[in-house]
Each structure stands twice: as structure tokens, then as C-alpha cells.
Amino acid sequence: MPRFSHAPVIHTLAQVVFTQVLPLVERIPEIQGRFIKAGYPHYVKQQLMNLAINISPQINAAGNRVAMSDRFQFLHRSRTRVAWVTSNSIVFATSEYEDYERFAEDLTKVLEAVFTGSGGVTEGALIQRVGLRYTDRVVPAQGDTIEEYVVPGLVGFSFSDVSILPNSPRTLQVVSSATTGLGQLIVRSVSMPGPQVLPPDIADSPLTFRICTPDGEKLHQTYAATRPGLTLDFDHFADFQNEATNVELTEENVLRILDSLHSVLSEAFASATTPHARAKWQTKAEAGETIPNDKVNNAVAKSARE
After folding, report:
1. Residues 190, 272: Cα–Cα separation, whole Å
2. Taking the CB of the first residue and of the last residue of the chain, which one, N or C, has fewer CB atoms within 10 A?
3. Contact 122/24 with Cβ under 8 angstroms?
4. Residue 94 and residue 158: Cα distance in Å, rounded?
5. Angstrom distance (rounded) from CA 141 to CA 148
């Protein structure tokens, strides 16, 4: 299958949430050892603040509660891959996405590090949620406009016929959601003043990344503001908390669910971008020869994000 030589993807994330496994935290030293062998030598223990808001109308009801929990971060030596582990979740993210097969291989190594290092304490735990999220930074080629790359519903209000200050900063955030056969699909387009290109909720990612342009440039994230663009965020997740059938936490089940989520995300990406954009991103055959534009569009329509 073809894939883009100048792909706009800058951040890809997989999340697995499961029933609480408190002994998992006690096994972090063994898990860290597995991560070190897998190429993740950088370790940080973090604390998360969890806010529980009480919406009960009762006068004597307990107020809002703030609880702290531990999260353990394992950063790859390349600083392009990272994993987070808590007592009820595993998250993997990369800023060096090649294709889904490579992503699944990297995620498998993370799951193996946790499951093997934990000594079997996760056996019997149940999956509550699985999510897959792609973040793309769409930067037009020199002389092009963003409207030539994404469909109209994602570019926001143009302000072209409105009296606004010249060169004034503009902020854009469009959010659309729908229910799929697996769960919930959320598509966001985001544009903020300054160098920030990741959505606000993942803007603190420790990963380094580069933004590919259709001109062949690879912009370091620090210089993102030098080339205006639009961030597209595709988030597809399946919730199993209220399912009648229990889904056990196993490597096979996680990968099977993610594969199904990925198929729908490919359709969403194809629907959000234009034939002009896909041609500019230069889909190439495995041999390295450029495919004609008509074949590019047909291939992308079948599998937009390999």
C-alpha cells in the first residue's frame, strides 16, 4: 500500500484504561527494568491531580474533592516515543510515525514491558476503554492556502469581509463528534497564535517532533510559527465499562480493538483532506516512484493512513 513521503502526522497516541490494579504500582522497579532494555532509559515519577465535582442538589452533600495519583513516565532515548503507566492505564505516544504496522510493533513492546515486568498482576483485569488518536499539522506549500488542503467545515470563519485589525492573532477551534459502530469519533481543527501546534490537552508532551511541509522541509517544532498551518486532531475511542461482555486485558485484545479503531480513523482522514493535499504530500510506491495523482486519490480513499 502507498504512503505519504511528506506525511502531516506529528503525534500519535494509544490509550488503554482498565480496572484498578493496585499491585501494578509496586512492580514499577521491575517494569522500569524492562523499559530500559527496550530503549526507554529516561524515567520520571509524576503526580496527577484528579478533580471530582459534586453536582448533587442536596444541601448537605459532600463538596468537590481533589485526589492525587501517581503516573510513571518512560521516555525513549530518541525522545520520539514515550509511555505512561498508572494503576489503571497504559498510554503510548510517538512523534515518529511511519505507518500503523510500525506503530503497533512499538506499542507491543510497551505492553510486553508492562505485562512481563508486572509479574502477572494484571491478569484478570478488564479493559474499560481503548483509544487511538492522530494529530496532524497541515502546512500549505508556498503559494497555497489552507482551504486547498482541508474541507470547508474545518477551516472556521474567514473574517474576509469583516473589519478586523490587520495581522491580528486568530484562534480557531472546531469540534465535531459522532457515534461509530465501535464508540465515539471526535474530529477537531485547532489554530492558535504563536508556536503551539499540539492541542492544549497534549501540549505538554515531552516528545520532540518535526513538521513536514509539501515543499520537503522538516520544521523543528520551535519554528512552527514561521509557517502558518492548521492542526487536525482525530480521536476514536471505544468504551467497555457498561458492556455486558467482559473484555480481558490482554495484548491480543488491545491490538484487535486498536486495529478496528484505526480503520475508521483512516476514513475520517480521507474525508477531512482534499485530493490536492494528498497529491502535495506525495504518496509513493514501495519502490520510491511517485504515483500519478489519480491513483494517489484512489489509494488514499481506501486507506488514508496506513
Report:
1. 13
2. N
3. yes
4. 33
5. 10
C-alpha cell belonging to residue 133: 488518536
Domain residues of the chain, as ranges? 3-51+66-302
Answer yes or no: is pLDDT of 300 > 80. no
Q: State the Cα–Cα distance between residues 114 and 110, nearest whole angstrom.
A: 6
Q: Identify the pLDDT of residue 4.
A: 85
- Of the CA atoms within 13 Å of residue 173, those in its CB half-sphere come to 7
- pLDDT tens digit sequence for 215-255: 888 888 777 767 889 999 999 999 998 877 799 999 999 99
- Kindly report the number of other CB atoms within 10 A of residue 42's CB atom: 14
DSSP the chain: --EETT--EEEEEEEEEES--THHHHTHHHHHHHHHHTT--EEEEEEEEEEE------TTS---EEEEEEEEEEE-TTSSEEEEEETTEEEEEES----HHHHHHHHHHHHHHHHHHTTTTTTT-BEEEEEEEEEEEE-PPTT--GGGTB-GGGS----TTS---TT----EEEEEEEE-SSSEEEEEEEE-SSS--S-GGGTT-----EEE-TTS-EEEGGGGGGS--EEEEEEEEEE-TT-SS--B--HHHHHHHHHHHHHHHHHHHHHHB-HHHHHHTTEE-TTSPBPPHHHHHHHHHH-S--
Specify the pLDDT at position 285: 43
* Model pTM above 0.90: no
Distance CA 185, CA 203 (A): 21
Q: CA 43: distance to chain centroid?
A: 21
pLDDT, residue 165, reads 79
What cell numbers appear for 100 in the block?
Answer: 500503523
Reply yes or no on whether the pLDDT at 287 is more than 50. no
61-75, 93-107, 269-283, 284-298: which has the minimum mean pLDDT?
284-298
